[in-house]
Amino acid sequence: MGMMVGKKGVKHDINITPYIDILLVLLIIFMVAAPLKHHDQEIRVPKPAPQNQPKDTKPDMIIVDVDSDHTVRLNLQPVEVDKLGDTLFRIFSARSNKNMFIRGDAGLPYGDVFKILDIAKRSGALDIALLDKGEGASSANTAKGGP
After folding, report:
1. What is the pLDDT of residues 115-139, one digit of tens each?
2. Residue 117 domain-assigned?
3. Which of 7, 12, 47, 102 has its CA 20 to 30 A from that of 69?
4. What does the H/E/C string look like for the chain?
């Protein structure tokens, strides 16, 4: 603490320059050390089910498959995208279970799958689960709580 004696008496002031120097050194140390910190949690991405397992699909399930060549199949029956809405509307109007699955190829753009999702919503589907080509319908039942 410095003291100055002048004409008007004793003046007390604190020299804060060393405090600022220490603060800047600590800031630089933390900026350098922060990127070096390793996180203990690893990211786990779910893997698709093996292809050789039998798929236990229920006979009343509606599964729309979208292949990488943009062909659409409704329960393994080929259908045109233009007629998919009418077909789904007839199916959903005759049944109380309005759940369905859309299984798309992983290489498809999201917009192509979203078109099928939009058609299904307009046709009366209430719960729609999206599946990857490697996933079975049984894993989607557990994720959605079952039909």
Report:
1. 888 998 998 888 888 887 754 444 4
2. yes
3. 47
4. CEEEEECCEEEEECCCHHHHHHHHHHHHHHHHHHHHCCCCCCCCCCCCCCCCCCCCCCCCCCEEEECCCCCEEECCEEECHHHHHHHHHHHHHCCCCCEEEEEECCCCCHHHHHHHHHHHHHHCCCEEEEEECCCCHHHHHHHHCCC
